[in-house]
Amino acid sequence: MEPNEEFISIYTQNITRKGGAEFLEWLKGTDFFSAPASTKYHCACEGGLAMHSLSVYHTLVERYFEEGVDNPESFAICGLLHDVCKIQFYKKSWRNVKNDDTGQWEKREYYSVDDAFPYGHGEKSVYLIERFMRLRPPEAMAIRWHMGGFDEAVKGGSFSMSLAYEKFPIAVKLHLADLESTYLREHHTSAVRAN
Fold it and tell me: What are phi and psi of 111, to 5 degrees?
């Protein structure tokens, strides 16, 4: 199954909340299914954002879902939608790069950041989702703080982040799933790189 089909299948099977179907239709009208997940690191390729979202969802469920404790819909929302802030965030560009083997200059495609709505990373994802469906407090906290200390807004630490992790276990679980997916499961999926 292609990543886009798998994403939509998992989404429709697990997310039944009011506004969820409308949010999925909105996603389909954006570059979510064609955008990369990063400029040069993990899933820096066409469709990488959907691939990364699936990877985080699967890691979250496989490693951290506790039957009778965790909510399958919350795991689907957090895993699949934590990075919707990257919609309309990247653009393809070209640069000249010297080929080490031939010594010739070649035009290479790469992704660059073009953030038209610089609202913050996790905050922006929460904002975009809540335009269509209400998030439960644990979901909003998990998505807001999924970057942990890598978030530009919390350089040097944040008492709010620490408190969110203490109060909402799903926030810690999503952060760990995102780290594992990014650094251990996806490092080989970069096809378009900035050199």
Answer: -100, 140
> Containing domain of residue 76, as a range?
3-88+121-185
Residues whose CB is less than 8 angstroms from the CB of residue 156 and which lie 6 or more positions away in sequence, other chains included: none
Which residue do the tokens 């790189």 mark?
193
* Number of domains into which the chain is organized: 1
Residue where the block lists tokens 């610089």: 118
Judge whether 38 lies within some domain.
yes
Query: 149-177 pLDDT, tens per residue?
Result: 766 655 555 688 889 999 999 999 999 99
CA dihedral of residues 41, 27, 94, 179 (deg, nearest 10): -10
Quick one: which of 141, 8, 5, 27 has its CA closest to 86? 27
108 in a domain, yes or no? Answer: no
In a domain, residue 102? The reply is: no
DSSP 8-class letter at 181: I
Q: Tell the residue number behind the tokens 């031939």, with chain if given.
A: 102
Q: What is the dihedral of CA 112, 142, 131, 22, to 10 degrees?
A: 90
Prediction pTM value: 0.85
